[in-house]
Each structure stands twice: as structure tokens, then as C-alpha cells.
Amino acid sequence: MSLKDCKWMLIVLTLFGLIVLLRNIITEENWKYSMVSAPLDKVQYGNRSSNLTRSLPAFYPNHSYCPHQGLPMSLEEQLEERNLLDSIIWPYPPSGSELLNLSQTSDPAHSLFTIVPSQKDQQWRVGDQLEVEVHLHDYEGRPKRYGGDFLLARLQSPHCRAGVVGQVLDHKNGVYSARLPLLWEGSTRVEVMLVHSSEAIAVLWRLREKRPDRVYFTGEFRRGRLSETTVCNMCLLQDKGPRCNFTDLRTGEPWYCYAPKKLSCEDRISHAKGGYLKGIITSKEALLFQSGVNVKVRINPSTTDTINVLPSRTSEERKEDPVTSGYYYQDSWRPFRDLPMRPFNQAAITQCLTNKLVYLYGDSTMRQWYEYFISVLPELKEFAMYTPKSVGPLMAVDSTHNILVHYRCHAPPIRFDTLMASELRYIANELDGLTGGPDTVVAISIWSHFSTFPAEVYMRRLRQIRKAVVRLLNRSPATAVIVRTGNPQIQRNDISLYNSDWFSLQLNTALRSMFKGLDVLLVDAWQMCVAHHEPHNLHPPRPIIKNMVDLMLSYVCRNGTTNTA
Predict the structure, then answer these.
(1) Domain 103-198+292-310 shares a fold with domain 339-556
(2) Which of these ranges, 137-151, 264-278, 311-325, 375-389, has the smallest mean pLDDT?
(3) Which member of 56, 147, 164, 495 lies 3.0 to 4.6 Å from 172 by CB, making a disulfide possible if both were Cys?
(4) How many helices (H) and strands (E) does the chain have?
């Protein structure tokens, strides 16, 4: 071998050695700080970042949000997820409809509904089913030729303080049918509402699948006087910097934060909602989300919207409706199931919950139940937990009657204000820590904070919670478990882009299927809010909350002798 060849050989070996050395250093650093290889963009650091929004990465998955994250699914779970996804398939507008002008989209002001005449002696009676036909038109008055619009239908009787939700059928040609059960006598009014046009649904579908980063989160890292704030989410781009891996070891639920520059991943102290991304749709698409114009607007009747319902032809009680979960009469919810609904006053609640532990888990709609108990039961004294009331955890005790009520929010992606990292608890893990038994009540509400993610993310979380519920009921069958569905809410300004009722409706479908067949009470918050005369709100008003809690207590004390109001 010549001297020249030896020289080149020496250079190659030296370069190879440097590469191996650098790789070992990087590997050691990644192992030391529990990082996953990924790149940091222009996130501002210091005492607190103020320019996070400007540097947020856009994430565009093909079909699902980081499908490789989380625990691997069994074949049975994969089949279940496929069936759940099939159950929420929504009619998509024809190709090219996204390029339409606003004038060619669904306009509630030009649309009409008609009450179909009764086939039984031209009269409506209790026990019959009312049918309504809805014809959608565009802004120029032309009939729509395809479906996919999101409609709500209900019956209301102000004098009876009654209401019930109807089932809407999409004929996929611009015509819809609404079927509504007639459950009380007297004058009854039909109401049909366009929540979103089919063209708006197409935009929401795209946002859900391709922009789950439109709500972003932050994590604060601190050691002494040095602090850094970085962007966090279930999935972060792998070419924007090192990531701290905070995936839950027991449930496998993924959570990542971009690694701080000067601190360690172990220095994370808190989690917070960062904010909402703006400018995620075009100005043309924004016209589809005008509150009071084409979002949650009532459709007018072609002739009349009112009928008179006569007494039933028979004395037989109405059988349970497979679609309708219940209805209001005299402002009291009447569920269709083998569960007598009873009103509970202060004394009745106390008697029902004496010697019981009540654990409330989830989002702020479950915190409402905790706040209701606190307001109704004067002997229930709150412990000073030194945490914000809007965040928790919260706990109250009635030592006289041996009652404990505890609230804890669910883990990320929780959109609350700042939470200490040590307080981020997954519901499944909390359930596994309960002994359970006839003295234990568990209520769960988890939905709203998942509206910006593809449905698979929510299904994965529910699956882990369901497994934990099954384990709890297996070891302690007498435990009372209550699951609350999501509910409609106000849709002003651009709220629809992050918390649309369409997102919530789809999550509800998955939730119902997930817990079907289990020995749990499903509180249908969706129908309880749609059927009520109060305006929709993320946090339903007190009369609705009282009915939800009364339903819960009717279930908890269904075998007791509680005296009610």
C-alpha cells in the first residue's frame, strides 16, 4: 500500500471515529434527559414566553393524529375502532363544493320545514310520532341537491314546560325528515335549527384531521430562578427540536413538550393551555361560520309550527324509545329506562349520600356537579387545597353524615389554566386506585377538550377509562358508576372551529358505543340540553344541572328508601 493510500485510510478512520463519538454523546444526552429526537423551532424563552403563537408548528397527518403513539391495540380493539369510525361517517359534499360561493351554500332563511299531516283520523294523539319534512335552499332560494347539513329538531310546550328531541334523517338530496315522539297533551311547537351547513362541516372535518394543533399547550420548566416555557401536545413535529417524553407509563397516553434549552425535562413544574391558533381558515371559509346567519339559526315553517295533541287512544304506557333517552315535563326530566326519576332536596341528598365517597372526574362540566353539591349541602365543608377553584383538585366533607365529595380534572389535553405537573392524573389510573364498593360513587365527564383532535384520540382515551371501569366493577360490583355525555354549546364568533357541536356529537356517538352494555348510568347531557328551553351553553344552567344530579342520585339510591322532595 502506498503512502498516499495510507494517508487517505487514516483520514477515513478518523472521520468514522468522530462520527461514532458524536453519536454516542447524543445518545447519552437523549438517554439522560429522556428526550425523543426532534428539533426546536423559534420558541422564545426566558421567565415566560410571550411569542409562542408565532412559532407553532403546523402538523398535517394523513388520516390520524400520531397513530404510532400510545399502546398498540389488539385485533379486537382495532376492529372496534374501525366500527366506531364507520359509525360517525358523515356525508361529504360533492367534489368541488368547497369552491362554491356563499350564495350556493345552505341558507336557513330560505329553507323551510313542513309538518306532515297525521295519517290517523287527521289528529295527533299522545303516543303518536310526528313527522316533519325539511327542505334546504341556498342563499338564492334554489333547492340544495345534496345532504350533509347538521340539523337539530325538537318539540316544545311552554305551558307544560315540556320538551323532547327528535331524530333527524338525511335523505342526501337536500331533504331531511325529523321524527318526534308525542308525549304530552296540548299545544306543541316544532322547532328545527340549522347548526352547520354541509359546506361548513367539510371545513370542520378538515380541521379535525389536519389541524389538531389549533389549540396548543405549554409546559413550564424551572430550576431556581431560571425558567423556560415550551410548546406541548400529544404529538409534535419530529424535525423541530428535542422533545421531552411525558407519556403515561400505565395507560400509554402520549404527551410531549419541546425540550428546554438550558434545563432538563425533569424540571417541568406546570402545564397550561397556551391558546388558540388564528388564521386557520380562509376568508371565504369564514363566511360559513357566521353566528346568527348560518350557524345555529332556526328554520321557518312553510305554514304552521304548532299542533294540538289529544289524549292517547289507549291506556297503555309508552314503550321505551331506542333513540330518545327521555323528555322534560314540568321542567323535570323523565328518562326512558327502568329507573324512577325522583327530585332530591337538601335532606334527600344528604340521606342518599350518607356514608358515601363521591369521586367526580373530568372537565369543567363535571366540576359543575361538585359546585352544585357545595351550594345545596350547607354541612359540606370544603378543604383548603390551595389550588385555583377552576382547576382543582377540590374536596369537601360532611363529617356529621360521613360524606366526602372529591373533584379532579382529567389529564392532558386539559385546557385549564396553569396546573402543577404533579396534579396531572389520568382518570383510568385514578379509578385503579379506588377500592370501590356500595359506599363509592364515581362520575365521569370527559369530552370537550378532545374536540380539536381526530376521533381516534378520544376513542383511545375512552378505551383506557372503560378498561379501568371494568376492573373496578369486577372487584367491587356494587360501585355506582355514572358517565356524562357532552352537550351543545353557544357557537359565537369562531368558537365552532375549536368546539363545534358537530365535534361533540361525534364524540358522543363514540362514548355511547364504548360504554354500551356496562353496568353504568349514562346521563344524556346532549338530549337534556337540546330538549330544554334554556339557551345552549358549554356549562348548562342550574335547572339542567339539578336534573342531571337528580338522575345520578336516583341511580345511586335506586334500591334505598330515600325520602325525596
Answers:
(1) no
(2) 311-325
(3) 147
(4) 12, 26
- Whole-number pLDDT of residue 565: 39
| Helix %, strand %, coil % of the chain (to 5) | 30, 25, 45
Nearest-5° Cα angle at 265, 263 to 266: 95
Task: Report the alpha-carbon distance of residue 125 to residue 314 in Å, rounded.
Answer: 10
Round to whole Å and give the CA distance between 155 and 153. Answer: 7
Per-domain boundaries in the chain: 103-198+292-310, 339-556
Closest CA to 250 of 62, 125, 411: 411
Name the packing angle between helices 501-515 and 455-475 (round to 10°): 30
Domain 103-198+292-310 has CATH 2.60.40.10: yes
**Assigned C-alpha cell, 180:** 318526534
Interatomic CA distance for residues 483 and 90, integer angstroms: 25
Tens-digit pLDDT profile for residues 411-426 = 999 999 899 999 999 9
For residues 270 and 366, give the distance between their C-alpha atoms in angstroms, rounded to a whole number: 22
d(CA 67, CA 457): 9
The CATH-assigned architecture of domain 339-556 is: 3-Layer(aba) Sandwich (3.40)
Q: Is the Cα dihedral 31, 216, 194, 333 positive or negative?
A: positive
